[in-house]
Amino acid sequence: MNDLLPDATHMGPVTLRTADLARLERWYQAGPGLVQVAESPGVVELGVDGRTLVRLEAAPDLRGPNPQDAGLFHTAVLYPDHTSLAAAVVRMTQIPGMVFAGVGDHHVSQAFYFVDPDGNGVELYVDRPRSAWQWQGDRVHMTTEGFDPSAFVAQHLGSGDATGTPTGATVGHVHLQVGDVTTARQFYVDALGFAETAAYGAQAVFVSAGGYHHHMAMNTWNSAGAGRRANTLGLGLVDIVVPGADGLGAARERLTARGVQTADDGRTLSFDDPWGNRIRLS
């Protein structure tokens, strides 16, 4: 049995449940620059290049999550270049009531952090070239240092155009809040098949496929000791795209061997992590 997800595995759309569909749709269009890809009753899909990055589902009867609950820490939108990211940052500053949560130079990437109107964390970032990443064995060097956001925008956009759809943007990674890192590692590495690329003691673990710095991360910064999450607004589903049926089948075998209950329709494999975060491989 193959112990790892295939190298070409990448993140698919993130589904968010919201009590105000129209408001959240406007926010993801105005700032990150996503456009409507598809629409059905109670559901709007937003993305670029015809690909869905964020799926919004109306759930007016659900309550909001407690900040200490397990669930979403942030959805991270990866831009193809510094100019696209700088333009998105400018658009974000033009949103009334926009909540800016800071910046981070992580050595492998540069990131801007925001909070959407529902309280969901959103990271907008750009990668540095892979040739600049520093590896020690199977661990990648990641830092969290500050940088001047205004200087970043001035350097990479100047007085350029901040409008338009960011062609080539993707969901680069998804970061979750969980109850403990040991259980997260057992699930996302041992059972699901990601490779661990970094860890911050008992506080956070970072995992990926194919030598990326991280496709997912799990931390306990707000949620240490959290149990299974309630049915609330916020994170509805994390999609992961696996190339080929073989990769899907190997993941099914690993999960089943570790007692994880899965729903398999032949094309997708759905299951909950130990905190009730819904994951779907396709």
Compute the number of helices: 5
The name of the CATH architecture is Roll
CA-CA gap between termini:
19 Å
- Category from helices, strands and their pairing: alpha+beta
β-strand percent reads 35-45%
Q: Give the C-level CATH assignment.
A: Alpha Beta
Q: Give the beta-strand count.
A: 18
The arrangement of helices and strands along the chain is: EHEEEEHEEEEEHEHEEEEHEEE
Low-pLDDT windows of residues = none
Question: Averaged pLDDT, please?
Answer: 96
Organism: Agrococcus jejuensis
Domain VOC: 10-127, 170-282
GO molecular function: dioxygenase activity; ferrous iron binding; lactoylglutathione lyase activity
Family: Belongs to the extradiol ring-cleavage dioxygenase family.
What do these coordinates show?
The protein has 282 residues and is an alpha+beta fold. It has a single domain, classed as 2,3-Dihydroxybiphenyl 1,2-Dioxygenase, domain 1. It has helices at residues 21-30, 82-93, 149-156, 181-191, 244-257; strands spanning 10-18, 35-40, 43-48, 51-58, 71-79, 99-105, 109-115, 121-127, 135-136, 139-140, 170-177, 195-200, 204-208, 216-219, 234-241, 263-264, 269-272, 278-281. The strands form three sheets. It has an eight-stranded mixed sheet, covered by helices on one side. It has an eight-stranded mixed sheet with strand order 6-7-8-5-11-14-13-12, with helices on one face. Strands 9-10 form a two-stranded antiparallel sheet. Strand 6 (99-105) and strand 7 (109-115) form a beta hairpin. The chain starts with 9 loop residues before the first strand and ends with a strand. 40% of the residues are buried. Keywords: Aromatic hydrocarbons catabolism, Dioxygenase, Iron, Metal-binding, Oxidoreductase. One of its GO terms (molecular function) is dioxygenase activity.
